[in-house]
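Field reference: sequence -> structure
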Amino acid sequence: MTTLEVRTQQRNQFVEITSQVRRVVAESGIRSGMCLVYCPHTTAAITINENADPDVVHDMLLWFERTIPQIQTGFRHGEGNSDSHIKASLVGPSVTLIVERGDLVLGTWQGVWFCEFDGPRTRKVHVQVVG
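Structure field:
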């Protein structure tokens, strides 16, 4: 397992980590298998989505902020980040990718994204490649 470090500058932010994950796959030497990308934080997540048009990430973050705003009455969690936990649960903590010919199998416009919902912070992402 390899652990990546991701630093965020905003409370809600998507950081593309495709190149770092590809580097881990290449360094593993595995030509055909699976790659698990896992976030061990309860207020952050991992997803695959478009990496060509930055408006996609903008629109996703806008939807999350409008749908699950930070301040809502009725939340009980004492840290004031209940919205962050909800967003992370909706996106999910991990993605599993196919590895073929020593590289990730992704669609033309797909990238791997770290999703921060309680930043800014320095976070960890675990990457495991198996053949």
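Note: The longest strand covers residues 122-130.
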